[in-house]
Amino acid sequence: MDYDKILQGKYPAKEHAKRVSDYIRQKVPNATGVLYLEGRATKLIEDNDSEEHFRQRRYFYYLTGCPLADSHVIYDIDSHKTTLFIPPIDPESVIWSGLPVSAEEALEKWDVDEVKYTNEINATLAHVGASKPKATVFAIPHQVSEKVTFIEFDEKNFAVLKEAIEVTRVVKDEFEVAMIAKANAISSKAHELVMKKVRHVQNERELEAIFIGECIAAGARDQAYHSIVASGRAAATLHYVANNAPMAGKLNLLLDAGGEWDCYASDITRTFPINGKFTKESRAIYDIVLKMQLDCIAALKEGVVWDDIHVLAHKIAIDGLLELGILQGDKEEIFANRTSVAFFPHGLGHYLGMDTHDTGGNANYADKDTMFRYLRVRGTLPAGSVITVEPGIYFCNFIIEPYLKDPKHSKYINSEVLEKYWDVGGVRIEDNIVITKSGTQNLTTAIKDPEEMERLISAN
């Protein structure tokens, strides 16, 4: 994909707005009126006169592509007209922050029909509401400023807009995929740079700095999430975020990190040997996880049920752990009793987009089946969705020991063989995958072949 060429165009905000309004009209037949959204407001750090790190509200961005704080948008459902409202010039702030974006510049930059300043928002809303008999303003609860009024609208609907955007966001257009591909390209290079440096650092935090520095240098100033830089047994903690432990004497590093490109995320995990050579036990676990990932990706296409792919991953894990002797007994019984959850406790992946755990997954965290409880996506996958495929096998005492004490599970686990694997910690491999009608497109380019990783690490 030539993502740079695609990204020379404008973010397709008006097409997104039309898709959202079409969804609303399915739910509210003959709906008329406007969609109203606000960007995130500037907020000061508590007990401080500096601003908090700004992260644009994703619902607003989806309909505007505008990263400016303190902004608003109105989309007219009937005329398909988008009006963006941006902050006016504040002479007192120019000396500190420089001139803000002008209305003329905003109209050139973003896919909107008209740009006004935020001091015109209430007058515009009043005019639109008064000129549209029986018009409805659709907004998101708790995301409307106190200073904004909808007094001229006959109806106010706070129930459907958030749902409409969340459902619509699942299927990405070419521009959105290009944004995620760009984030992946930058983050993949940063992952490989960490591999090159891993033998020469003393502490996890040095590797976190290397990753973030490479992303910033390439233009991805924001991270999609807090990096997981887990050495040794810390890799068995799924969301380990301390990233401050010494690395001496440890076998592997699990790096789960991804930069963000213009509000669109990447989410990549690689696990590799710190000294450049997998131990026998580490390589055995890595090979199982790699097979889990490759076979699951090969099974994906439009209409596939994600729950079934998750099951496939567990069955491959069971076969691999049986072959190593960590598991013992009948594989069908092991699967039926959910004993493999002790080693693979999380879901296979999640939707990816403007959020790392993107919208529309229909998770059911109340599911009594432990194999599916943490599955963030349920049901069929549409073409155009982007999903992470991130199987893993972990050796976490806190999780596994209750299984060893439970007769239902303990008979399937060979504790003597298991003893050899605790120092492996955990292995996870994660790529970002576009679902197509006939298969997939993998946006993640960071190397994951174990021998290639060993060569890269050992050569530096």
Detailed description of the structure:
Its EC number is 3.4.11.9. Keywords: Aminopeptidase, Hydrolase, Manganese, Metal-binding, Metalloprotease, Protease. The chain is an alpha+beta fold. The protein contains 16 helices and 16 strands. The strands form five sheets. A six-stranded mixed beta sheet has the order 4-3-2-1-5-6, with helices on both faces. Strands 7-8-11 form a three-stranded antiparallel beta sheet. A three-stranded antiparallel beta sheet has the order 12-15-16, covered by helices on one side. Helix 2 (13-27) crosses helix 3 (58-64), helix 8 packs across helix 9 (204-217) and helix 10 (280-298) runs antiparallel to helix 11. The protein is globular, with a radius of gyration of 25 Å. The protein starts with a helix and ends with a helix.
Keywords:
globular; three-stranded antiparallel β-sheet; alpha+beta
Cα gyration radius (Å): 25 Å
Q: What is the overall silhouette?
A: globular
Structural class: alpha+beta
Detail the poorly predicted runs: none
Helix content: 25-40%
Q: DSSP strand (E) fraction?
A: 5-15%
Main β-sheet, in a few words? 6 strands, mixed
Q: Based on DSSP secondary structure assignment, what is the total number of beta strands?
A: 16
What is the CA-CA span between the terminal residues? 30 Å
Number of separate helices = 16
Strand arrangement, largest sheet?
A: 4-3-2-1-5-6
User: What's the mean pLDDT score?
Assistant: 97
